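Q: Give me a backbone?
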Amino acid sequence: MKWEHILLDRADKVATITLNRPEKYNSFTGRMREDLLEAVREACEDPEVRAVVITGAGKAFCTGGDVDEFLSGNTQALSRAGPTDRYTMHKIVSAIHHTEKPFIAAVNGVAAGGGCNLALACDIRILSDKARFVQVFSRRGAFPDWGGIYFLPRLVGYAKAAELLFAGDSVDAGEALRIGLANRVVGQDELMDAASQLAGRIAANAPVPISLIKRGLQNSFQVSLEQALDFESYALEICKGTEDFREGFLSFIEKREAVFKGR
């Protein structure tokens, strides 16, 4: 394997990244974070990849940082190359957030701490009925990492985010769906099929508008209506200049599936 605890598979324009340390519930070591960053960047930079799925091997999605590594004093979770450099986990979150490609978290089990917030950093979350989210930081004397303080209130609102972060309670799959942390809940055996099928449907669509839609959705929390309309005009002009724009309308008229080339 290219990396010890990270798998990267590609098929049909979809990349699947698997956190592969099941015996430790996919908790992160320092090296594993670095490897995940490499895998995320590789998927983002691959011109053949149009959607990315992140999941965990075994019973858990990810339980955050390796507790044994923290207690041993050997953790590099909070080590930085220099005073202006970001932690590796921040680089991962930033890469997911700023790439033009949609990321889907297929949450197969418990997602705690940094593992929870890694899932929240993705654009879409599909949960198995065995999944649980736990914002465990206040129970460990820690501050939410992996961008959780940014993503959580945007998904569930301020008051619910405050409750989850202050109390550190566990949220099961049904409650996660009810409060907006999940797009869908499926049976454990159906999870990867559901995630792969959704990723495939996304990958079959035109990638240029999808990249602009992702940016527009993110900007919508920070801009005025007039600024959103300006971005809409800008994005429409870009799409109208692509071959895929013509292909989309031709395929509709000709009653066939569109074949988008990303240009």
